[in-house]
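Closing statement on the iron/sulfur cluster sub-project.
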Amino acid sequence: MPIPEAFGPSAAAPPMPRPVAGPSAAARRLGVLPVPSLEWNAQVEHETAHLCERIKTVVPAVEWPFFAPYVKAINALKRERNAVILAHNYQTPEIYNCVADFVGDSLQLAREAAKTKAGVIVQCGVHFMAETAKILNPDKVVLIPDRRAGCSLAQSITAEDVRMLRDSFPGVPVVTYVNTSAEVKAESDICCTSSNALQVVESLGSDKVIFLPDEYLAKYVASQTSVKIIAWKGHCEVHERFTADELRSYRESDPSIKIIAHPECPPDVIEEADFTGSTAHMIDWVRERRPRRVVMVTECSMADNVQAELPDVHFVRPCNLCPHMKRITLPKILDSLVHMQEEVVVDPLIAGKARRAVERMIHLKS
Ligand code: SF4
């Protein structure tokens, strides 16, 4: 089994995207709509009852009068704006279950972004996901409800770092996790997600690959292939917090418990797991096997979202929240649709190069 070489982040992490001053180009073009009524009344209760029912196992009934007016208003505004909402598996249950048109992991959302006929995409996830949607849809309006929703992996590497690695390893192809900026994608040969990382690495026909920027995902891929992996020391701030000791204590308290882990976790955590896979693969695993008790070793909203669908499974929730994902809320989604903000803009030259790497991944035969 090859041991990955790992290189470290440069001193200067890329800055977070800057807030845009004044109304977005989309707001100037499409106009600002009146803010809908957010009153909780019998009509709102009646019209949203089916959605309340859908999340009743994970959202206390006392919270629904706050959420319901936003849910009703957002669903009406989506139609008015010809907008589609894409929500990542880590979004909270009221977003994931009540206003999203498509849910999934980064790969599923990128595929939906590439297919959609809607004129406006609202990305309920983090900034690199919204950028990916814009890269695939240069002529559409892509909005993110809070531009500050970043990602520790995306911040760990710059385009200059990738050029430095290319100089150090001439001719070695570069595979970049989608959790990166458009500039980094533009320097890459192909993108990957945690769903298809192994397939992407092996598709290149090279005995050596530079795999960026998640060191732990790189190690996981290296454990599954004979391709030599050159890694980067980027980490997900959520998954790196899990420890093997923590998982062993779950198993000691209940030997029949199932533990499933995301490959962004450290290697000793993955060794304790019964299954390792992307968020989409983790959800499929639970849907198919219906374990009595399960620990999903990943961001904790995902267990809530699967719990809403599978009330008979008991989820043990080690609660590690992603602070970036949690910046997205119903009030901000509503603002986004009313004011057409925050509009995601990617330099067309960079978007063109990044698109090649993302589309090469999307078109890879599964
Ligand atoms: S969970 Fe980790 S990888 Fe996902 S957005 Fe948050 S920091 Fe980034």
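The first strand starts at residue 5 and ends at 7. With this model delivered, the sub-project is considered complete and its resources will be redirected to Aim 3.
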